[in-house]
Amino acid sequence: MGTDEKEVLACIEKYAAVFNTMAQEVLSRSAANSKGASVDMQGLFDPQKLSALLNGDIKVDSNKLIQQQMHYMQKQAELWQEASKAMMGEVLQTKTDEHSKKKPQDKRFAREDWDSNPVFRYIKESYLANSEMLSSMVDAIEFADEKAERQAKFFTRQYVNSLSPTNFVLTNPEVCEEVLKSKGQNLVKGMQNFLEDLEKSPLEAFKMRQTDSSGFTLGENLANTPGKIVYQNELMQLIHYAPVHKQNHQIPVLIVPPFINKYYVLDLDEKKSMVRGLLNAGYSVFMISWVNPDAELADNDFVDYMRKGPITAIEKVKSITEQTKVNLTGFCVGGTLCAMTVAYLAGLKDKSVNSLTLLTTLLDFSEPGEVANYFSEDMLPLIEQNADIKGVFDGRIIGMSFSLLRENSLFWSFFIDNYLKGKDPAPFDILHWNSDSTNIPAACFKQYLRTTYWENRLKNPEDIVIDGVKIDLSNIDIPTYFLSTISDHIVLWKGAYEGTKLVSGNRRFVLAGSGHLAGVINPTESGKYPHWINENLPDSADEWFEGATENAGSWWPDWHAWLSPLSGKKLNAPIPGKHSDLPALMDAPGSYVMKRLGE
Questions:
Q1: How confident is the model at residue 91 (pLDDT cuts 50, 70, 90)?
Q2: CB 305 within 8 A of CB 313
Q3: Is the Cβ–Cβ distance between 221 and 449 less than 8 Å?
Q4: Residue spans of alpha helices (H) in 163-250
Q5: d(CA 445, CA 298)
Q6: Within 13 Å of residue 263, how many CA atoms lie on the same side as its CB?
Q7: Residue 17: what pLDDT?
Q8: Measuring CA to CA, which residue among 148, 168, 289 is closest to residue 218?
Q9: Whole-number Å distance between alpha carbons of 209 and 202
Q10: pLDDT at position 8, please?
């Protein structure tokens, strides 16, 4: 054995030992505050959760299980037969053969070596057979609780995908090739990347870099639309953007982004900015920029966010524009907050909101999607206790939770590139935003979580009472535009469609292509995703889709065409910072958005 080979093997051996120790450290982490109190948060991603679900109130379909076991044995026999042929020197079918073409494509195994190399082919096929067997076993189980069934399937998928041979050094041909090329230096660099990410991670979760953030600066190449901060309180700063036309529509637009993220996903750059799209269409645009809170703001709940957020902002916008109404737009959680705000104002007979736009928003949480798999009777108190101890719920935990909803593309792919191949992630604006996490005050986190995902109370008329005002979404009698995206894994579009049944007034539902972010940020000029329109609102989402017409390109023109007749005549556009009572405090994007966790 040559010197180079010995060095590579020594590096692999050292890497495996050190990396396994570090991985164990990540998996065993628990939350602890400075006083020593701790709450075990492993249940969010703990494989033992699956074991507990499978030991619950279940019945096994014996016939289905036997059939699946027979199918598994047949697959294993075929696999051994294929391996034996390969050992005898027989050329195996490649992925271009008809047999392989019929299989669904798995991007993890796209490299030719997974088919052409007998060893890697055996590893792959063995893994896929075992994966199918485990998933089929869960399918053969009848659960008394539908939620437990969804959780069992979710955690089974997480477990199966975590064991993919692509996630390990010696069973991934791309990593093996990289080891040989770099003489093991990729593993050294991978350990450095791992330690750097570990240092910046909260105690409860591991924060993995998904992009090179050094390539982005807020106010320069992101969130750079000119404007002024014209008001601020402890929870938000209000941005008034500089008009691009001398005259704008009479009624201004106020955008309320989710408080679990930074606002600038709606103002990424000149080509991908919803803000610029509205400005170019002739609207006066205002944006709430939420604070990235610490423990000092722990007592601010969801109702405080409503009062100090959209309600306060509406009054300031009305003053600046000298108008009596605003067109309100909410994105995701911001949309839920806007709907509650409008219902609250309606209970007060306040007509300040002229129209409502809800982007990828749930009002009825009956179909909350896979996010709900993280919540259970035993986990919810622990999550709430964690927030109480720290005064906030760490946004990086939320970020990791969302990444694990698409674990192969948003978690394991970066794990392989960053730590096994030793590569640095490339700059990508949406992933930079995605990693720019925001804390949530403990009181707000708990109230929002229980009111929506856990108890689903917002849809029930008068179930929520604020200052003596009963919150009834049917009192929203203004024009309302619903936008959902067909591949959204956070807000399922069919769940969002149910919201159309809760409000009154003129309603329009539009379905955009792609997912939660890319489907929304789909500019008119370069929009590559289609959208579907149906002028009617039948009872079910499936019926709506059957009657919908697919249209090429962005949904933005449809929204602007809907919004324009509701926005009044053209008047001289107000200039940011020129109002005597609301002067400019600083340039946009302001200071609240600049605070990054872990820095």
A1: low
A2: no
A3: no
A4: 173-182, 185-199
A5: 9
A6: 32
A7: 60
A8: 289
A9: 13
A10: 63
Tokens of 58: 């279940």
- With contact defined as beta carbons under 8 Å apart, do 193 and 419 qualify? yes
Q: What is the pLDDT of residues 325-350, one digit of tens each?
A: 999 999 999 999 999 999 999 999 99
Per-residue b/e over 236-258, b at no fewer than 16 CB within 10 Å? bbbbbbebbeeebbbbbbbbbbb
DSSP bridge pairs for 583: 578
Instruction: Give the residue numbers marked as catalytic.
Output: 332
pLDDT tier for residue 53 given thresholds of 50, 70 and 90: low
Mean of pLDDT values over 446-462: 95
pLDDT band at 40 (very low <50, low <70, confident <90, very high): very low
Residue with token string 């998928």: 157
Helices (H), 117-215: 118-139, 146-162, 173-182, 185-199
Which residue in the block uniquely carries the two structure tokens 């309320």? Answer: 256
Q: How confident is the model at residue 41 (pLDDT cuts 50, 70, 90)?
A: very low
Q: What is the residue whose two structure tokens read 């700063």?
A: 237
Structural tokens at position 384: 């709430």
The set of long-range contacts for 91-96, using a CB threshold of 8 Å and a minimum separation of 24, is 92/116, 92/118, 92/121
The residues near 400 (Cβ < 8 Å, ≥ 6 apart) are 45, 205, 206, 207, 208, 411
Check pLDDT > 50 for residue 34: no
